[in-house]
Amino acid sequence: MKTLSSTAFISLLAFTTAAEAIFDNVTVFAPPSNWPSHRTSYGRTLLLDHTKTDPVLLSTWSFSPPDGTYLPIYRSTDGGQTWSDFSKVHFSNNGGYVGGSIWQPFLYELPRQVGQYPRGTILASGNAIPHDFSSTNIEVYASLDRGFSWEFVSVVATGGPPNTTNGATPVWEPFISMYEDELTVYYSDQRDPLHGQKLAHQSTRDLVHWGPVVNDAAYANYTLRPGMTTVARIGNGKYLLSYELGNAPDVPYAVHYRIADNPLKFDEATPYLLQSRDGTIPSACPYTVWTPVGGPHGTIVMSDGTYSEVFINRDNGNPHAWIKVPTGKGVAYSRALTVMPDPSVILFFNGGLYGENNTTVTAGEWIVPRHQRSARQVAR
């Protein structure tokens, strides 16, 4: 019979669940049986009403519908328990990408006016791929009516054909955030001949004109491939950038992170390998959020593409303070996390596993474990 180590015993005492999740594994979308493709991936959610008991959520994901090239927008008015088809974001630039695909979507709500777009405007971004796979195009679309209708706004970045081989020149994986008066799109960039792939961003004050490419993580070792940016503001007011590192020496696509006072200056920050206290190194497509519950510094929650568990940190990203905790949720390619109005609740959004032929989009709640006394305190 196995016995608990002292470390495991402390972990069990220190982290317990405050309440049970209300719902889990809700099916949001399953491709109809008569569709040629039954693949879904890269699900994303956006919380619109932060103060309501039953908040409104929008969601999207990447798929291959037979009736056009667009991102689906599904809507929930009960906090994610039920979903309905709400609208479509037709990528109308460049002839509409007829026969192509929209990969790696992202949704964002403007917290203040940007150019002619007022606070509350919903933005949708994605990587538009033409039918001949000749280019990659990170574009932005806007909705002025809470996601019901959409208009083309601008192209952030254009790269070469979608090819993950070092030396190719595509762009990938937009992530949108805002700092002071600038809206920023972070993305993965293979166009720089000095780097197989790097993380970069471009910023705007009007959503039309984009500033220069600024590095966020660009390694001197050409073969390393940082990718899949997510950014979260954490408990001490600093900003955490999480990313996978392709060709990393530790594990494939080992998750790394950086912490900076200014989210536009991550390239100056120290890179850390994320390793939990039990020795686990998360791998691939991290998604990171912060919630104020769980301790005096709140809780950083990071999901990866390999483990059903999440990795939490209650010490402002201290590299020695990561703990792996169970969730009961399925593994997904870039599983999205959304902190709900009750900040002890995080909505998990699963767009499906990468490369699987038959996938569904699902959602479920997870309750952030609350911090309790350590074993040493209990002994006293």
List keywords for this structure.
four-stranded antiparallel beta sheet, 380 residues, Neuraminidase, mainly beta, disordered N terminus, disordered C terminus
Please characterize this protein's 3D structure:
With 380 residues, the protein is mainly beta. It has a domain at 91-223: Neuraminidase (6 Propeller), CATH 2.120.10. 4% of the residues lie in helices and 43% in strands. The chain has two helices and 26 strands. The chain has helices at residues 6-14, 375-379; strands spanning 15-17, 26-29, 40-47, 57-63, 70-76, 84-90, 101-109, 122-129, 136-143, 151-159, 171-179, 182-189, 198-204, 214-217, 225-233, 239-246, 254-260, 272-273, 287-291, 299-303, 310-313, 322-325, 336-339, 345-350, 361-367, 369-371. The strands form seven sheets. The chain has a four-stranded antiparallel β-sheet with strand order 2-25-24-23, with no helix packed on it. Strands 3-4-5-6 form a four-stranded antiparallel β-sheet, with no helix packed on it. Strand 16 (239-246) and strand 17 (254-260) form a beta hairpin. The relative contact order is 0.15. The model is unreliable at 1-18 and 373-380 (pLDDT under 50). It comes from Aspergillus fumigatus (Neosartorya fumigata). Keywords: Signal. Residues 1-21 form the signal peptide.
